[in-house]
Design a protein that fits this description.
The chain has 261 residues and is of the alpha/beta class. It has a domain of 180 residues: 3-Layer(aba) Sandwich (Rossmann fold), CATH 3.40.50.720. Helix content is 38%, strand content 11%. It has eleven helices and eight strands. The chain has a six-stranded parallel sheet with strand order 3-2-1-4-5-6. It has a two-stranded parallel ribbon with strand order 7-8. The protein is globular, with a radius of gyration of 18 Å.
Length: 261
């Protein structure tokens, strides 16, 4: 009888700070802690407000100042407009600490941001606010997808997540962590091209396998993205709670598809 061998990738356990304890931040904290990483979790209200949540997750509740100390990775999972509040937070953080941005720009929530409206990629703008480059990851996935649809490596049809960044080592670490949360990580190029995974594009919250995601990134139309984003938000608000998760994925796919000629 032929014996089957399974190759298990060597894993590196890291110290990770997460700022933002909403649906995405808390889910990442849970998944990364479960994977063996040492996780500190912070929010805007202070550690006492999330101590029970952090305990349930297996993370330490800390202030945002503590979240960036003594770690190898910082994950930022807050509304885009709130990055202005982080100015100076990274002044004393070593340059080799990887910073990952999961945010997206929604003008109805964030207010108008002129640079982004003018074409600056969201995560390039984030880097300008905190004074250092970031890697963009986990932004193009719905919270329920992140929480419920991760699969072991090698499973057919495993959902892929785009990862964009300009620093090769930082992007490699982000890719490793995305894989640890149960998704294939697809290198989406540099930050300047990360508009291809922003809201209103075919790669955004459409639950695609890696080969499909690669094509979605390639086919993105920058001139249509903001209009697609705003039309979909209007549609989702109008539907209220009647939409299932699968409905939302299907509407994202339909609403960002290239127009038929």
């Amino acid at each position: 009888m032929k014996r089957a061998y399974i190759h298990i990738r060597e894993r590196t356990f890291m110290k990770i700070g997460i700022i933002g304890a909403g649906n995405i931040g808390a889910t990442l904290a849970r998944k990364l802690a479960t994977s063996g990483h040492a996780v500190k979790l912070a929010n805007s209200k202070g550690p006492d407000s999330i101590r029970a949540l952090a305990g349930d997750i297996g993370a330490a509740a800390v202030s945002k100042e503590e979240a960036v100390r003594g770690v190898e990775v910082v994950v930022l999972s807050i509304p885009l407009a709130n990055y202005r509040d982080l100015a100076g937070l990274f002044n004393d953080v070593p340059d080799d600490v990887v910073v990952i941005d999961t945010s997206n720009y929604y003008p109805f929530r964030d207010g108008a941001i002129a640079d982004v409206d003018g074409g600056m990629a969201e995560s390039v703008w984030v880097g300008s606010q905190i004074g250092r480059p970031v890697v963009k990851a986990w932004n193009a996935v719905l919270a329920a997808t992140l929480a419920e649809k991760g699969q072991p490596e090698g499973v057919d049809g495993r959902i892929a997540i785009p990862v964009a960044g300009d620093v090769a080592k930082a992007k490699a670490i982000a890719i490793e962590l995305v894989e640890a949360t149960g998704f294939d990580a697809l290198d989406a190029g540099g930050l300047a091209a990360s508009w291809r995974q922003q809201p209103g594009t075919p790669a955004y919250c459409t639950e695609l396998a890696a080969n499909e995601l690669k094509e979605a990134l390639r086919s993105a139309d920058r001139s249509r993205a903001a209009d697609n984003r705003d039309a979909l938000i209007k549609e989702f608000f109008a539907a209220g709670t009647s939409l299932t998760h699968d409905d939302m994925v299907a509407r994202n796919r339909a609403g960002t598809a290239a127009p038929k000629s």
